[in-house]
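User: Could you walk me through two proteins back to back? I'd like the raw sequence and the structure tokens for each, with a short line separating them so I can tell where one ends and the next begins.

Assistant: Of course. Protein one, sequence then structure:
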Amino acid sequence: MHRSASISKILVAKFNQHAPLEESRQLARFANCLWQTATMLTSLAFVLASQVSITPANRMGEAWWKDRHDRCVAQTKQGGHELIFIGDSITQGWEGGGKATWDKYYGSRKAANYGFSGDRTEHVLWRMENGEIVGEKPKVAVMMIGTNNIGHGSSDAAATALGVKTIVGKLRTAMPATKILLLGIFPRGATATDKMRMDVASATAQFSSLADGKNVFFLDIGRAYVSKDGDMWKGLMPDLLHPNPAGYEIWAKAMEPTLKNLLGE
């Protein structure tokens, strides 16, 4: 009896001696499992965000958007444009605050505007698949898109850049003779450390590599809208996102030398 008790005590002591080691191993396995799960979730989030930015989507439930789409389909069918602009509200704004500058620089150039307020990359892709843009044979297509992907939180910088790259690829296929002038996404937010400012800059850096100097050209004029410290000039972008009339004049002047060259003027 005493011998059995002694053996039991020895076994308990041995177990207690090794218990901390076993607990450490279990904790290590658990931590590794958590790390793998976090990695998988991060990867899944990127895949989902990427899919959103490259999956064609419409906004036909918005009456004004449908009406504008119908007009742009008719505009594409009419054709004959040598210069087209593709984008979001910043591009559509050529018809608002930028109209005087548009008339001054593009009024005699057979130009067409395909900018839709609030659009993201996926909306441009849908429009291209549903009667807009594809069918045009312009000399130059100017495009700036992506700020709403980031601003609306639907895509991060990498997914936004992927959306831009997908559009450029489809433009190249649809209009191989057209030169594409890809613009860096304009800065947004008050300062250089603004989260969305940094995200649009990151997206721009990622898709700028599309430029080949032959069919696709890249131009980033965003620095014209900020101070040397990166603070937004509110005299050019009062809402920290959209150019005012003076901002559109800055845009046109900065783009003109490149545009003239691409148009062969």
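----
Protein two, same layout:
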Amino acid sequence: MKNRLLFCCLFALLSAIHSGSAQPKPPVVKPVKIAILLFPGVELLDFAGPLEVFNHMEGASVFTVASQIGPMKMMQNMLTVTPDYTLNTVPQPDILVVPGGRMEDVMADTAVVNWIRRTTAGRQLTMSVCTGTYLLGQAGLLDGKTVTTHWAATDMLRQMMPKTTVKEHTRFVDAGSLVTTAGVSAGIDGALHVVARLRGQQAAQQIARLMEYDKWEPEAGLVIGKPAKRPLTRSKLAVSQKVTSSRRKPVETPASQIDPVCHMAVDKITTADTAYYAGKYYGFCSKLCKQHFKREPAAYIKAN
């Protein structure tokens, strides 16, 4: 009787051990280091949107990096942010996020461009938001790729990168190791897509719900709404007149409140960012756009 009772107890114990060992183990989450590039004049939501998304991703370590140490002005000097690392101290990231903003200075910063190019081999994925594609193009990462950018910057990107296919009317483009997004809020969609790739669709949906980003349609890559038409008017101007930089205060009503090169809205016209052509003043969002305009003014005017 005792032997029988002992056998039953031993059998129950072995069954419990076997049952416990047969249970599936939770999947191991691979840690991911995500670096977000900052620079003077960076657009706030371009970097803050992806930062918010990735901050909620399991196993993600998110940090910011810039070419210089100390507080940095951004978003038309409305906000000051201190980056976590410089280019010399930042850990090798698995994912690099390059936002857009005021691009001419950072595109001319060879230290930033070389760092982006140098760290490409060690990265799992590179993601750009808005005109951050300009910087990736400057680093030579877009040749032969299909990308997108802010709807108002697609034409200029095509001119800058003739070997790149630029798609319009899409929130993001997944080209494998490169994910590019349209403007500003589209960085959230692109980041959610990256989460879905790395952690699954359910994880991305949970983050979208947590952020109350409830209009996200993963399959379409869209938030509710339709692509907006460009707020442009067509002008027929003489093509042979000389372009001159403005040396005096521009007229109160310029030819257009839209940059004729990148088609972005020009909030404030200053003498540093205007050019005179065919009897009218034109305003630009950056010196880079102004330089492009001065090379072929007639072509840009006709395109508008």
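The chain has two domains: 32-210, 244-303.

Let me know if you want the two compared in more detail.
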